[in-house]
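Pasting as-is:
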Amino acid sequence: MHASDRPDGPPKTEPALRAIAMPADANPYGDIFGGWLLSQMDLAGGAAASRRAKGRAVTVAITAMTFHRPVFIGDEVTCYAEIIKVGRTSITVKVESWVRRGIGEEQIAVTEGIFTYVAVGEDRRPCPVPPEG
């Protein structure tokens, strides 16, 4: 199911990141640049991957990215990150972005993507993801 098809709103998990879309992040028409939103999602996914890796995790791939609706100046952007796969050194994270517009509480799904991170050691070389717990 795509985030935009979810009838019950955003994920029930704790948000990984919240930010307000500002004028510096927009084009002349008031739409937020896709690259800005992608960077917010990468930060959210990277935080989840680093927690799971118990250390540094770096982005190696974005295998899917869908922009469902535009983001506007002043929107409160919330990113939710869910780890969907853990390999020997890699962690795959689904990130969804939702916005709250104006003073209402309604949230709208705007973007989703699949990000892959690799756990790296102090030498910045891949290292095994430790067991959970």
